[in-house]
Amino acid sequence: MRTDPTVLADLEELERALAGEPSPFTELVADVRSQRPQMDPAFAARLDARVDEARKAPPRRSWLAWSPVAGFAAAVVVALIVVSSGGDSANPGGGSSQSVSSASQAAPTDRSAKSAAPALSSGATSEAVTPRSSPPTGRKVERNTTMQLSTSRSDVQTVADQVIATTQRFGGIVDSSQISTSDAEASAVFALRIPARRLDDAVAALSKLAHVASLSQGSTDITGSFVSAADRLRDARAERQALLKALARATTTQEVDALKARLRDNRSQIGAIKGELNSLRRRANLSRIDVTVAGNGHKGASGGTWTPGDAAGDALRVLEVAAGVVLIGLAVLVPLALIGGGAAFAARATRRRRRDSALDAV
């Protein structure tokens, strides 16, 4: 049977890839080599020791060295048989006996071939079917915390900076943050990720930054999702190994193209499952904390500690209010004083004119 030229060309490219030369099958060869099993270090050490012993041992004479002697002995035996049989070796009985002997020798070979076929089939089956490993020990739990801190409007920025510093101190990250201020109030909103093993300590540290107006915590068991994704990844990798073996046995262009398309889909599937597993690991290893800092009052009014600094601030606020009242009073009294002064000046001028008129009449 003549092999398809396209298949021959693909085989040549595959040989070039195996030799380390540039080829379209370079990536395929790299994938296959990455899937090969690694030799146990202990077994490799034993194998090296046996090789060293074999090198140090004296060389054994091969059976080929005895072949001339064996050939001479066989010739002598044949000559004796021919002489003793008197030329009967050419009769049909002798030929029949020889054919029976050949058949008897061929029969075990056929039986051994038949017995080897099931062994190969069972071996292929054992390679194609990948045993499922036991589920990972331990539970995968996602923990969430929501807390609201209350402080004065002027301290919102300070508390926000402290929230970021506390997150970094516990090895966490800030997923998102938003700070907004206005004349009446200010607020800051954070989405934090803290290592699960340090979540309780981080919550305690954040609670000391300002008055805790509210706090809620919860947890979600995601072990089932994690085990399911791990099983799907294992099945996808087993399918990839089977596709690579099938590609190595493919003989037609149509089979090669179909297997390559399935390998591309399988690669995409493996990448998507890996992304899902990484997301689940991140949710289990990094707990989420949603922090809201509300600046809608004073620390004393919110139940926090009233410090000398707070007293100084309140005193300054009182002085600001008093100064404002004075300015408003001046804004009202100054126009009234100007109007009253003008009226008094006009009345005085009128009286003076009347007095002067009376004196002139006398």
Describe the structure.
By secondary structure, the protein is of the alpha+beta class. 64% of the residues lie in helices and 15% in strands. The chain is built from ten helices and five strands. Strands 2-3-5-1-4 form a five-stranded mixed beta sheet. A hairpin with a 4-residue loop joins strand 2 and strand 3. Helix 8 packs antiparallel against helix 9. The radius of gyration is 49 Å and the shape is rod-shaped. About 16% of the residues have low confidence.
Question: What secondary-structure arrangement, pairings included, does this model have?
Answer:
Elements: H1 5-18, H2 26-35, H3 41-56, H4 67-85, H5 92-128, E1 141-152, H6 156-169, E2 173-181, E3 186-195, H7 199-207, E4 211-221, H8 223-249, H9 253-285, E5 286-297, H10 308-361
Parallel strand pairs: 1-5
Antiparallel strand pairs: 1-4, 2-3, 3-5
Helix pairs in contact: 8-9
